[in-house]
């Protein structure tokens, strides 16, 4: 079974060999070096799998009209013909989409463990957990993710007792949808040796009830349980990676920034690439300094496997998430007086870690959601910029709640704002409750970033959200959720144009990973990564863009996904 799964799409699809060819009769949309839309009718691919030319109209075979050679000289050879030619039937072609912030292995593991992201109530989640446990007889632990008490309308965190009601005989550990809190049953809490006397580590919080652990562990406190959770085996990583790739390719994702790559993840990426099975381009950011040095050693790795894989940076996490009230704020949460969240890394340590990575030319991507966290990262970057010159492309991941006064500082220090439009659609009600109306001036502020000339890269934070980029494009344009709410958009002044939304998921996402000369825009000289879709998203309403279907996905001039196969 595993062998068949790992072989994956390569055996199922009619792939042309890597050779020159043309995709003709397309409604082509590319992105030029300034982020503007370019139209074309045919795409010429060279024998290295790169874009040779964008042709405005239909492709015409060059005529062979050689000049008569001088006496004694041979006639010029006839130019070699194309190895393949495909008529796309007028379908829309766009650049392969790039997710600027995702978690590849986490996506794959959610596809092989229990996923609660589709549950809409505590009772529904309990029933799904119970059924999963009954179908998984013999497991020593039940592992999963995706729960969201806000989506359940619970108004509080779930408890260990409520998880015990579903499964009580074996340990259960379930990550919240944002990855910043975990839910344990009593068996898991006992296995970890956590009691009412256990102190939460710095940057973490143990939810308590009647002097005992209530069942939810926030941010750094998750380590108390995770230290006893059995890690996935290498074969589990291999299977998870293949499943993740299939999910990404089916939604038109041809490249992704993997935020928080472990040495185990990297080894799985390399094993897949060595087999010729790594299709999605992965820009990896190591999970902290230890993984950074284990994977790359003294400097970022080169691009490997025809630009399929590179470890170029390190991912740091400064605060938690709004949903679990772990995001670090400058003032108390409006719905939880006395709580402001906590920094996970003390100020001096943050600067030391960033300096250690910067001195070896690793790019630094720092998770910051709350306004205090964003200000702290920018303060650190301002200080370090005096020492570390050049094109650093410091990244702030999420940048969800930013003080309006801090917005111009992104451009001042060349900081990339790596943001996820779908978070706004999921969070707008919760963000209003957490912050209050008066503190949202710099919340999910995409248009303000562009107005301040900040490089704006878009992603999904998969598996926190679906990897599908088309809802992300729709939300960026409309500020409305899947139900069309709120009508006209939440804080509609932060909407962006279609051109800017597509740019964020293509050219800017590549730029954020130092890859803009290699792929991302579908312009001559870049890798021929593109997607054929069922509609012209440049003229569609935002609500209709959500439903876009990917018909084919091509990477490096080779077809790697066909809908229905």
Q: Which stretches of 5+ consecutive residues score pLDDT under 50?
A: 1-17
Name the helicity range.
25-40%
Distance between the termini: 18 Å
Structural class: alpha/beta
Radius of gyration: 25 Å
Q: How big a fraction of the residues is strand? A: 15-25%
Largest sheet features: 8 strands, parallel
Strand segment count: 24
Q: Averaging pLDDT over every residue, what do you get?
A: 93
How do the strands line up in the largest sheet?
A: 8-15-16-17-18-19-20-21
Number of helical stretches of at least 4 residues: 20
**Shape type:** globular
Short note summarizing the structure:
By secondary structure, the protein is of the alpha/beta class. Helices cover 30% and strands 22% of the residues. It is built from 20 helices and 24 strands.
Pick out its properties.
single chain, eight-stranded parallel sheet, disordered N terminus, 565 residues, 24 strands, globular
What would your notes on this structure say?
With 565 residues, the chain is an alpha/beta fold. Helices cover 30% and strands 22% of the residues. The strands form 4 sheets. The chain has an 8-stranded parallel sheet. Strand 2 and strand 3 (37-40) form a beta hairpin. Helix 15 packs across helix 17.
What is this structure's SSE topology?
Layout: H1 2-7, H2 9-12, E1 21-24, E2 27-31, E3 37-40, E4 42-45, E5 51-55, E6 84-87, E7 92-95, E8 97-102, H3 104-110, E9 114-115, H4 122-135, E10 142-147, H5 149-152, H6 160-164, E11 172-176, E12 181-184, H7 186-191, E13 204-209, E14 212-219, H8 223-226, H9 234-250, E15 253-261, H10 263-274, E16 281-287, H11 288-296, E17 309-317, H12 347-359, E18 363-368, H13 371-384, E19 395-398, H14 407-412, E20 416-419, H15 421-435, H16 446-451, E21 456-458, H17 469-478, H18 498-504, H19 507-512, E22 530-533, H20 542-545, E23 550-555, E24 558-562
Parallel strand pairs: 1-6, 2-7, 8-15, 9-10, 10-11, 15-16, 16-17, 17-18, 18-19, 19-20, 20-21
Antiparallel strand pairs: 1-4, 2-3, 4-5, 7-22, 11-12, 12-14, 13-14, 22-23, 23-24
